[in-house]
């Protein structure tokens, strides 16, 4: 990445509303920063790397997230890996190895609470009530104690919905992240990593309204621990950000060539 592209990635990744809000209210969200390594290894997987070392690296990153106390983001990573395997037959083996290695590495953290709290879970509250709430989360700055939003199962503070990137940041994510593959004569890089489309879409839908409520009510270990499904949005957000920056780079390269053309 050029300095301009890397700076864009650095600023949005490190200072978006999700991470600043969660850290601000005291959540142990430091494992979020390991998503940079997680995204790197996922892209390497989609680029065709199939050796056993890559699943070990992915599992190691996910286990480190758990050690940081960032259980939720680790779970979103596991879900992404599982969905990649479900929608892409060629990826099932490395994805399965990643899940198995993560279970082995994290067993000493998983098993004690699983035994102690067997059959327990959280009461589901809510995801984003609407796409308008999501839009506000992306472009509006609100005080943590301003008001609580939610639905029929309960309400939570704004920090559970904050995803602030500003109007310019949202425009960047939309144009280079979402619109780039569908534009007329897109850059060759815009069509890469299409295997992520359905997994990211499912995680995005899970962050909305009461879609996850049906899963949260099932006796499924780990999955029934997610009571605030708006948090799911961080995985599609980070991966989309990385893809948007990768798709920005060819435009910057053309601009550089134009400036140096005599």
Keywords:
mainly alpha, 58% helix, 3% strand
Give me a quick take on this structure.
By secondary structure, this protein is mostly helical. 58% of the residues lie in helices and 3% in strands.
The number of helical runs is 12
How does the overall form come out from the CA principal axes? globular
Tell me the strand percentage band.
Answer: under 5%
Runs in which pLDDT lies below 50 for 5 or more consecutive residues are none
Level of helix content?
55-70%
Q: Which structural category fits the helices and strands?
A: mainly alpha
Total strands: 2
Task: Give the strand line-up of the largest sheet.
Answer: 1-2
Radius of gyration: 19 Å
Helix-strand sequence:
HHHHHHHHEEHHHH
Mean pLDDT: 86
Question: Would you kindly provide a written description of the structure presented here, covering whatever features stand out?
Answer:
This protein has 262 residues and is mostly helical. The chain has twelve helices and two strands. A two-stranded antiparallel sheet has the order 1-2. α3 (35-46) packs antiparallel against α4 (53-67), α4 (53-67) runs antiparallel to α5 and α5 (71-87) packs antiparallel against α6. It starts with a helix and ends with a helix. The model has no long low-confidence stretch (mean pLDDT 86).
Topology:
Elements: H1 3-15, H2 17-24, H3 35-46, H4 53-67, H5 71-87, H6 92-105, H7 107-116, H8 131-139, E1 148-151, E2 154-157, H9 166-179, H10 197-206, H11 213-216, H12 234-260
Antiparallel strand pairs: 1-2
